[in-house]
Amino acid sequence: VVKIISKFELRRLCRSIGATAMVRVGPPTADELGYADIVSVKEVSSKKVVVFEQLDEDSGISTIVLRGSTMNILDDMERAIDDAVNSAKALCKEGRCLAGAGAVEMELASRMRSLGESTPGLE
Predict the structure, then answer these.
(1) What pTM did the predictor assign?
(2) Cα separation of 26 and 46, whole Å?
């Protein structure tokens, strides 16, 4: 039995192992049970954590362990990784991509310059 207080963490775990979060007290049905190949307790940075492992190559589970000197640095790293994962996920769902940081404006300026150079008119 793994007790998870955070609803967010509980939903994440249930989604990754194919389980259903139970709102009632009682034995789970076969449809509510999830599956993990290996469940173990490991120590990471002097803190005990429960590790769920899927040995299948098509598994959707990935874990990134972050360590930092302050909570602010950890928050910044977590935010950066979350942004990168969500960008990759959005790009996999929808194949179109629009570059940022002024890339669109620079490309438009380049094309307008080449069009202006090839078009006769007042200099």
Answers:
(1) 0.50
(2) 34
Euclidean distance between CA atoms 89 and 53, whole angstroms: 22
What pLDDT, on a 0 to 100 scale, did the predictor assign at position 111? 94
Helix (H) or strand (E) holding 43: strand 38-44
Please report where in the chains the tokens 């994440």 appear, as a residue: 12
d(CA 4, CA 21): 11
| H/E run at residue 49 | strand 47-53
CA 42 to the chain's CA centroid: 23
Q: Which three-class secondary structure state does DSSP give residue 11?
A: helix
**Cα–Cα distance, 15 to 1 (Å, whole number):** 17
